[in-house]
Amino acid sequence: MTSQAEGGARTAGLDRRWRWGGVLLGVGLGAFFDGIVLHQLLQWHHMVSSEYEPDTVRNLKINTLGDGLFHVGAAIFTVIGLLLLWSGTRGRHPVWPTSALIGTLLFGWGLFNDIEGLVDHHLLQLHHVRPGPNQLAYDLGYLLWGAVMLVIGWALMRNTRTKN
User: Fold this and answer.
1) What sections of the protein cross the membrane (predicted)?
2) Where are the alpha helices (DSSP H) in the chain?
3) Total of domains in the chain
4) From residue 60, how far is each of 53, 81, 97, 131, 146 by CA, in Å?
5) Per-residue confidence in pLDDT tens, the chain, 164 aa
6) Of 71, 67, 15, 77, which Cα lies nearest the Cα of 45?
7) CB–CB of 33/74 below 8 Å?
8) 36 inside domain
9) Is the dihedral of CA 88, 92, 94, 97 positive or negative?
10) How many whole angstroms separate alpha carbon 82 and alpha carbon 124?
11) 68-81 burial, b for 16+ CB within 10 Å, e for fewer?
12) Which of 142, 163, 132, 154 minimizes the C-alpha distance to 33?
């Protein structure tokens, strides 16, 4: 038999695992959205398009490699997130609200946007969301979108009321 304290510690550990899993899954989903929509579909930028403007075959190859490595990172975050999420929901535990899961995903996605935006767009200037006229507005809009997802995600994620 396990004591109530042991059961509470186990639930807290599972709670941390599924929350981290949801956040990392959100990071991966945000990265995939960025890479698929902004890099491939809209073709606004590639991973290193500020340094290697994709106007030659050689530069396009370099950018495509950068995008591919970026997607490998997105896949790693996604798989780790799924594994943590899965392991955090195994066995006996309270039923966590759907809003908390959605919150972890939004928080992770917003975290991705703001870190990627600050590092790649502003600090390293590897690329911008949409280079050219209004470039700064697009970059700041990307950060604002990330901040909104962080705030909404945090509020939803904090909803820990469980169903017994």
Assistant:
1) 20-42, 68-87, 94-112, 140-157
2) 4-33, 57-88, 98-116, 135-157
3) 1
4) 8, 31, 45, 16, 28
5) 455 555 556 666 778 888 999 999 999 999 999 999 999 999 999 999 999 999 999 999 999 999 999 999 999 999 999 999 998 888 777 778 899 999 999 999 999 999 999 999 999 999 999 999 999 999 999 999 999 999 999 999 887 655 44
6) 67
7) no
8) yes
9) positive
10) 30
11) eebbeebeebbebb
12) 142
Tokens of residue 100, six digits: 């908390």
Residue 119: C-alpha distances to residues 114, 116, 122 (Å): 8, 5, 6
Is the CA virtual torsion 125, 58, 41, 29 positive or negative? negative
**Residue 97 belongs to what domain range?**
10-157
Question: What distances in angstroms separate CA 117 from CA 1, 91, 97, 125, one per listed residue?
Answer: 50, 38, 30, 9
Residue 91 is assigned to a structural domain of this protein: yes
